[in-house]
TrEMBL record:
InterPro entries: CxC2_KDZ-assoc, KDZ. Residues 12-119 form the CxC2-like cysteine cluster KDZ transposase-associated domain. This is CxC2-like cysteine cluster KDZ transposase-associated domain-containing protein. Pfam families: CxC2, KDZ. It comes from the Eukaryota.
């Protein structure tokens, strides 16, 4: 906009634009309610924007978060939402996180710099809200791709490992191996053997949280990781079992697993069972976190 000396950038909000929700584009709402404090942030693929939004309060109006979802805006909260991310930016980061391995921190601050790269107009920090929306977005995508939305009971009826794509190379009774294969002679039965591999990564760390109520798991046991409470119960029952020390030369992964600093950490590594042929993760939650190293977890790995 021309300010009598030069052109300067201004927002559509400054020019008086209001985005009306709950109605078709161009239709007026006679019972509109502006966002409280007139603060509403939209995270989009081309920047982070502060806009003016009016919610609909007509008799047939839907709840606020549904009005946002109708225009493909994902709310950061279901109660009094004032920060949203467009579906396009969530899809973009979802793809970039796999293809370019970009972190959420780098991606978010790239969006902030595309909105203001001079620092003269500071962008409101919505990084924590963006992380929360991405976590929920991934969870919903997983449930959608697993077909859990078609269950009449709802997603609460999801069983352990049901959101995992089964390995097509592994034998599955009634699917890719004949019935009664276990009764075949040994010289034929070996064809239907299941080949598994077990490995662990001691570099993956997860910080401890204050409580599960403040940071709950969205799908505990539904995909690759084991269900938390059953896992803790399993460990408590086998806490006296000890892992045999490794005698391999220069192989200290097992021997030093329990000596690493663990203060403030909820998990010190991850162990997993995969298909030895395709390296696909196994279903029925064959992945577990390591709380005190591999020592207490090897019995679980061998019994899974």
């Amino acid at each position: 906009m021309w300010n009598s000396k030069f052109f300067e950038s201004v927002t559509l909000k400054t020019l008086g634009l209001h985005v009306q929700l709950g109605h078709t584009p161009g239709e007026r709402c006679y019972n509109a309610q502006p966002v409280s404090c007139d603060e509403f942030t939209v995270i989009d693929a081309h920047g982070i924007h502060d806009i003016a939004v009016d919610f609909c309060r007509c008799e047939t109006a839907q709840i606020r978060y549904k009005q946002l979802l109708r225009v493909w805006w994902f709310p950061a909260t279901t109660t009094d939402p004032r920060t949203v991310a467009t579906f396009s930016v969530l899809e973009l980061f979802h793809l970039l996180s796999f293809e370019s391995k970009v972190s959420a921190y780098e991606f978010y601050h790239s969006l902030a710099r595309s909105s203001d790269n001079t620092g003269t107009s500071p962008i409101k920090d919505r990084y924590s809200a963006f992380m929360r929306m991405m976590r929920e977005w991934h969870h919903i995508l997983q449930l959608m791709r697993a077909g859990r939305g078609h269950d009449p009971i709802g997603i609460e009826a999801t069983s352990d490992g049901e959101c995992v794509v089964p390995c097509p190379a592994c034998p599955h009774t009634g699917i890719n191996i004949p019935d009664g294969w276990e009764n075949l002679p040994p010289n034929i039965r070996w064809r239907y053997a299941l080949f598994l591999a077990i490995d662990a990564n001691f570099r993956l760390k997860r910080k401890a949280i204050s409580s599960d109520d403040h940071d709950p798991s969205l799908n505990s046991g539904w995909a690759y990781f084991v269900e938390e409470h059953a896992y803790k119960r399993f460990l408590s029952e086998r806490s006296i079992e000890r892992q045999e020390r490794s005698t391999c030369v220069s192989h200290n992964a097992v021997n030093t697993a329990d000596t690493k600093a663990s203060q403030g950490l909820a998990a010190m590594g991850v162990g997993s069972i995969v298909c030895a042929r395709s390296t696909l993760m196994m279903t029925h939650s064959k992945t577990m976190t390591m709380r005190i190293g591999l020592t207490a977890h090897t019995p679980l790995l061998s019994k899974s």
